Structure formats: C-alpha cells, structure tokens
Amino acid sequence: MSFKEYEVIAIPNSNTLLINYGINNGAKRGQTLRIIEKGPRILIDEHDYGTYDAIKAIVEIHAPYEQFSECKLFNYSTINVLSPLQSLLKQTKKEEMTLSGVTPTPMPMPPTITPISVGDIAQLTNE
User: Fold this and answer.
1) What is the predicted pLDDT for the residue at 7?
2) From the first residue on, what is the mean pLDDT of each consecutive set of 10 residues in the chain (127 residues)?
3) For residue 91, what are the CA distances in angstroms to 39, 65, 96?
4) Which of 5, 43, 99, 122 is the most exposed place for a label (fewest CB within 10 A)?
5) pLDDT, position 72
6) Distances, alpha carbon 26 to alpha carbons 31, 44, 66, 69, 71, in Å
7) What is the DSSP string of 73-102?
8) Contact assessment for residue 31 and residue 124, using Cβ atoms and an 8 Å cutoff
9) Collapsing DSSP states into helix, strand and coil, what is residue 23?
C-alpha cells in the first residue's frame, strides 16, 4: 500500500505543524499523518517491501484550510470522573517483549530520527 505524501511547510510553534494538504485535497479534521524520515528499501528474495522509514510523529489535523492544514500531536486518555469504584477498576498495560529462539536476519536499520523540520515528508495514513 502506498500512502499519499505531503510536506511540512511551516512550524509556527512547538505544538503546531502546517502541512500542504488542505480542503482542496480532501483534508478533514481528525485525519492523521505520519511525519517520517525516508529509510532504506527492504528487498528480500527480489521482492520490494517498500522503505523502512523512521516515524518522527503521528499528528492529527486540527484545522484544515483551503490549501494546507494545521496539525497537532494529541495524547488521548480515558478518565473516570467521580467514580467511587475507580480504584477497583482494572488497567491495561502494554509492554514490549523480547522474542526468544529467533535468528535475526541482516537488514538495514531505519534512519536515525531527527527533529521535525520544514520539508519533512507527511504521509496520510489515518491510523
């Protein structure tokens, strides 16, 4: 699957990016884009699996304009307000585990993640 690619055109402040994807291109509030650093191509047995990109951030369109969109990084969490049973509720924790008994294959590493800057690629992924 190939994602449509756009570009970071401005960074007005530390929590806002402007992307050259606007209402004229179909931009809608709430869509998500990956800000990436292009990585090396993954070729295995002559099959091209695409590039192994470094993901700098996943941002959401906050305000689409005619030819660009204002994007922000959001953190979503659930808060149970005034629940007397809140301390009894279960919480889920996600933890990365190490695979055992595997033999790693030689392959390229993704590029080093650098700070987001004007000109970076923004992929429309809607994840």
Assistant:
1) 96
2) 90 94 97 93 90 92 97 76 62 74 79 92 91
3) 36, 39, 17
4) 99
5) 93
6) 10, 35, 9, 11, 15
7) --------TT-TTGGGS-----------S-
8) yes
9) helix
